[in-house]
Write a structure and sequence with these properties.
Elements: H1 4-30, H2 32-61, H3 64-99, H4 104-109, H5 114-129, H6 131-148, H7 152-164, H8 166-182, H9 185-210, H10 217-227, H11 237-249, H12 253-280, H13 282-291, H14 306-310, H15 317-332, H16 334-352, H17 361-364, H18 369-390, H19 392-395, H20 401-405, H21 411-440, H22 445-472, H23 481-485, H24 488-514, H25 526-556
Helix pairs in contact: 1-2, 1-5, 2-6, 3-5, 3-8, 3-11, 3-16, 5-8, 5-12, 6-7, 7-11, 7-12, 8-12, 8-13, 9-16, 11-12, 15-21, 16-18, 16-21, 18-21, 18-22, 18-24, 21-22, 21-25, 22-24, 22-25, 24-25
Length: about 550
């Protein structure tokens, strides 16, 4: 029996690897353009982040006093935030993987020990949840390695990543188990909301701590270190990683290996404890998690749509109900809002660590370059989200299209409800991120207003593209949103969205370059304002055309 356990665990991994290889081969065969475009976009984002962090670290190296304080603190705060975000992400993914209705019932009926099931799901969720850390963290680490000019730093930094990832993974596994074992389904929502509120409070506290005033450098430095001391505790894993990276960057590899050993040992121990604990009580937790589903009758929502309907008060009642239904579906699906939360949580983390450290941007003509990069990052994240989650909205209505036919309105008007829902979600996070960026960088009122207007136009254009093209090229026979997004229509929407974003950002980028030496509060010349206006108009016109074409086809389509 002892020899059969590794074989069974190996069988699970072989089956998962074969399934992943089959899905990848199918995606490459059915949508090669989409795969190639995604790879190119990820590569461009990675290279752009690497170049940005490289310039920031190079600028910091010119002021050794600030670099001594800022660089370790940036890594400390980054990994502290990633500890919270990845624990939150792992908890959501593990809860769905272990206590969901898809694969867990089948695995629990097989002659496989619960320890193997939990180990398999835990390692799988680590891979699924750590991609954001790899995408945004490795460019910063490699930029630091290039700055330090220590070739051994590359391997050591990657080792720190691999050693750090299981720590939030183990915390997320324990959190998911605790929610499934001791809380009913409604309490899961309460815990999720409280976790989101906690993340917001941490972000606000970090922004207040990182915000520079007009006080003297010595006074600011003392107050700054006092505010940020909570992330520098010797008991926190982020401090081990930050200290190890700092020692390695300065050539003290013996101390760097010591901190790496401490991080890896604690990661292994926490993972062992978490997997053993969950596997011992897996049956009871699964029974408690599944028995609470569908027991009590749900209270019927008010005729106005309830709380979700209030978000769409400006819509007529029929459209408000459709938009409120989509918003409820979005809230009830952690796979959607958790990814949006993590993406913009990482963006807020990046903005909070942006150059509030008295870099001489205005003297070098960079004071508009950094906000423009923020606009690029927000636009690309919005394009990713809308192509993945907004585009399938119309196709998912295919099974209920007959019901829409009896509504007292044309089917084309339903697209306005879809647009209102997607605009509400994307504008809420995008405008918050851009406002934070303007606040952190002391951006002038004129350029802050321009960036906010461009953000609104990009949100409209991307959402209108996703809704309009989704209605023009629907896949009503498909029930999987991932397959809908990876089809021909999804690929077309991705290419059109990227092209529109490139056009808009090109116009704003040229205007930024023309105005780079102007004072931050100075009004740009008419040529720069005209370019920004043309960029906004291009996004709006493209969105309107896509909506018109989609509504025209959606009114006539037969299922």
């Amino acid at each position: 029996m002892a020899e059969a356990v590794p074989a069974r665990l190996e069988l699970l991994f072989r089956a998962r690897g074969q399934a992943a290889a089959n899905r990848l081969a199918q995606a490459v065969r059915e949508a090669p353009i989409r795969i190639a475009t995604a790879v190119v976009l990820v590569g461009l984002i990675w290279l752009g982040l690497f170049g940005l962090f490289r310039m920031v670290f190079a600028q910091l190296e010119r002021t050794p006093l600030e670099a001594t304080v800022a660089v370790p603190l940036v890594f400390n705060f980054f990994f502290a935030s990633m500890l919270v975000l990845l624990a939150f992400s792992n908890a959501i993914i593990v809860h769905g993987a272990l206590f969901g209705k898809t694969e867990s019932p089948y695995l629990l009926t097989l002659p496989i020990a619960p320890l193997d099931v939990v180990t398999f799901k835990y390692l799988e969720c680590l891979v699924l949840s750590s991609w954001s850390l790899v995408l945004l963290g490795l460019p910063m680490m490699f930029a630091m390695a290039v700055t330090s000019q220590q070739w051994l730093c590359y391997a050591l930094f990657v080792a720190f990543f691999l050693a750090f990832i299981p720590i939030p993974g183990a915390l997320g596994l324990i959190l998911a188990f605790g929610v499934a074992r001791f809380f009913p389904r409604k309490a899961l929502r309460v815990v999720t909301i409280l976790s989101a509120v906690l993340l917001v409070m941490v972000a606000v506290a970090a922004v207040r701590a990182l915000r520079l005033g007009d006080t003297a450098t010595e006074v600011w430095l003392r107050a700054f270190l006092m505010r940020m001391s909570f992330v520098q505790s010797a008991l926190l894993p982020n401090n081990w990683v930050a200290a190890g990276i700092d020692h390695a960057a300065h050539g003290r590899f013996d101390l760097g290996l010591l901190y790496l050993s401490v991080t890896a040992a604690n990661a292994f121990f926490l993972s062992w404890i978490a997997v053993r604990l969950v596997s011992r009580h897996l049956d009871a937790a699964y029974d408690r998690a599944t028995s609470g589903r569908g027991g009590a009758l749900r209270r019927t929502a008010p005729a106005s749509g309830g709380i979700c309907g209030w978000a769409f008060w400006y819509l007529p009642l029929p459209l408000r109900l459709v938009a409120a239904k989509d918003l409820r579906t979005f809230i009830r699906d952690p796979a959607q809002w958790s990814q949006l939360t993590i993406l913009f949580g990482l963006l807020v983390l990046y903005l909070a660590n942006m150059p509030t450290l008295r870099l001489e941007f205005s003297a070098s003509g960079w004071f508009l370059f950094i906000p423009f990069l923020n606009l690029c990052a927000v636009s690309l994240i919005l394009a990713t989200f809308t192509c993945r989650f907004v585009f399938p909205l119309v196709s998912l209505e295919g099974q209920k299209l007959w019901l829409m036919g009896v509504l007292p309105m044309s089917r084309g008007r339903i697209l306005w409800a879809k647009l209102a829902f997607s605009m509400t979600v994307t504008l809420a996070v995008a405008l918050s991120a851009m406002t934070l960026a303007a606040y952190m960088l002391n951006l002038g009122t004129v350029w802050a207003s321009i960036h906010l207007m461009v953000t609104i136009a990009v949100c409209f254009g991307l959402c209108a593209f996703s809704v309009g093209i989704g209605a023009r090229m629907p896949m009503f026979h498909e029930v999987s949103s991932a397959r809908i997004a990876s089809g021909l229509g999804g690929t077309t929407n991705l290419l059109a969205s990227v092209a529109m974003v490139c056009v808009v950002l090109t116009g704003v980028g040229i205007a930024t370059f023309r105005s780079r030496y102007l004072p931050s509060n100075a009004l740009p010349d008419m040529g720069s304002l005209g370019l920004c206006a043309l960029a906004v108009a291009a996004a709006v016109v493209c969105g309107v055309v896509a909506l018109w074409a989609g509504a025209r086809h959606f009114n006539r389509v037969q299922v």
